[in-house]
Amino acid sequence: MAFNQFIQSLDLSNNEALKVRTLLESQVTDSLEQVATSSTGQNVALATSTAKIVFRENIGWIGSESENYIATCETNCQSAPRIITTLKVPFAIRSGGHNPNRGWASAGENAILIDMNRICDVVLSQDKKTVEIGPGNRWQKVRVDPWGRVPSFSSEYGLACDNVRAFEVVLSDSSIVNASRTENPDLFWAFKGGGFNFGIVTKFTYWTVPIDKIWFAARIYEPSANGQILKAIEEWQKAAENESRGSIIHHIGHRRTLLGWIYSSPVEFPPLFEMFYDIPYESWFVESTIGTILDFTKSTSNRVLGTPQKLRREAFGMTTRPSADFYTLAYDRWRQVTDELYGQTGCDMGMVVQPLTTSAMKIGRENGGNALNTAVEPQQWMSYLAQWVNEDDDERVRKAVFELRDYLRENAAQMGILLPFVFMNNATFAQDPLTGYGAQHIARMKEVSRKYDAEQVFQTLQGDGFLLRKV
Fold first, then answer.
1. Is 125 helix (H, G, I), strand (E, B) or coil?
2. Domain match, 382 and 441 both
3. Are residues 339 and 427 in the same domain?
4. How many Å apart are CA 280 and CA 391, to the nearest integer?
5. Among 71, 110, 263, 285, whose Cα sits 20 to 30 Å from the Cα of 146?
6. Using alpha carbons only, what angle is made at residue 239 by residues 234 and 243, rounded to the nearest 5 degrees?
7. Are 281 and 220 in contact (CB under 8 A)?
């Protein structure tokens, strides 16, 4: 590509264009194509120098010793792919940066990190039926779900991805397209579960949920209550098949367990959760409240079990049909492993049973479908997250976590309850959640990838993640 063509594609002021030209002429002796075949370090150096001019330091350029960031905003989000694809620079994309897998939302010193934090507008439509949300937002501001998992009312409205009306996407050729049921519907389908395989989402348009007052409460339990809680969860899953207004929040920690209930009508202690009410508890985490979803968010978002630290993390997820016997088996093995790890390394590993109903799975198919290919039956998305401090303990902890994962999957398979789907947000780098979508869905996603990313930039230059190139 000639200098002129590249500079014009960046849509710069005359002064900025002159600076980029001067930079290129000082560092490039032949052509941009030659630079693209040079060492990665040279590519990144030129890309970062160009980005400092294009994004202007007072708007979004951030440098660090370990990573090179381009903090994008809505007015320049197209320029980042142009720089990356022209100079063939490895890159990663970060929105919230919550994924615990190393390299999924970080880039290192020889790559570019596209940080979406500055795209954080929230714009409610005039009729209040939809809301436009930037990818840099946080749960408390948006209130899609304060726990960062599936929505609180999935049995009534489906998964978060099923409530997207449209995606605004920057493709690898820097064009901006919309994806919805009527516009680029194949891309719309693929983005609902397909991850960073197709482009950079710069705006989500969600359908709003027409709910005002709800009921919510949460309690803290000692470990001795876990057996009763796990049996009650299976009982609740049966009841929830016929009553769509409620969901539970569940997290077992090494020392305490959190159990919460959310009900989409202003009814205190509804019968749907009656199997939990008499289980002995230690204290209230959130007392019984009838309020708005915002009240719920405020009551939970700033409270944690334990002290936040800079920790090392390893996670994994799996999906099974409901089974109290399996929940108990999983808990007993988890308790054995986590007690040993805690004594040896101080590692604290959490266990979560996250139930979903048949209704939640059906809604996705009714709303244009999604790439997930989840079974249309009651299920639970089990997740584990280990957190520890010392790097010296990495091998010991990861070995124990992966052995636990394999043990649970083997036993679930023997019991006939293991399902292939793995929720991507719960998965470890050592898992392959895309494979669980099934061969037909993988083939369809690859077709979408080739159509909208002809040069396969998101497969060849993107550093790591759950990418189609691995399947």
1. coil
2. no
3. yes
4. 38
5. 71
6. 140
7. yes
CB 177 within 8 A of CB 201: no
Q: Which amino acid is at 453?
A: D
361 neighbors 305 (Cβ within 8 angstroms): no
- The amino acid at residue 361 is M
| 11-18 own/partner pairs: CB under 8 Å, 24+ apart | 11/78, 11/79, 12/53, 12/54, 16/53, 16/54, 16/56
Number of Cβ within a 10 Å radius of residue 340: 13
At 446, which CATH number? 3.30.465.10
* Boundary (domain end) residue, out of 69, 85, 115: 115
C-alpha distance across the termini of the chain, in Å: 32
| Run of H or E residues at 239 | helix 226-240
* Across 220-239, average pLDDT: 98
Whole-angstrom distance, CA of residue 378 vs CA of residue 229: 18
**Tokens found for residue 368:** 């244009």
Return the sign of the alpha-carbon dihedral for residues 443, 447, 448, 454.
Answer: positive
- What predicted TM-score, i.e. pTM, was given to this entire model? 0.90
**By percentage, how much of the chain surpasses pLDDT 70?**
86
What DSSP state is assigned to residue 160? G
CA distance readout (Å), 65 to 68, 109, 110, 310: 8, 7, 11, 18
Rg of the chain over Cα atoms, rounded to whole angstroms, equals 24
Instruction: Residue 218: name the closest of 159, 143, 152, 139 by CA.
Output: 152
- Is the distance from CB of 360 to CB of 297 less than 8 angstroms? no
What is the pairing mode between strands 112-115 and 68-71? parallel
Domain that holds residue 323: 214-435
Of 143, 152, 331, nearest to 230 by C-alpha is 331
Task: Say if residue 166's pLDDT is above 60.
Answer: yes
**pLDDT tens readout for residues 29-67:** 666 766 666 666 677 778 878 888 887 653 444 445 445
The C-alpha atoms of residue 159 and residue 239 are separated, in whole angstroms, by 20
CB 73 within 8 A of CB 115: no
Asked if residue 386 lies in contact with residue 315, where contact means CB atoms within 8 angstroms, the answer is yes
Residue 307, judged by CB atoms within 10 A of its CB (0-12, 13-18, 19+), counts as: exposed
Look-up of token digits 């997207």:
164
Helix or strand run (H / E) with residue 215: strand 214-221
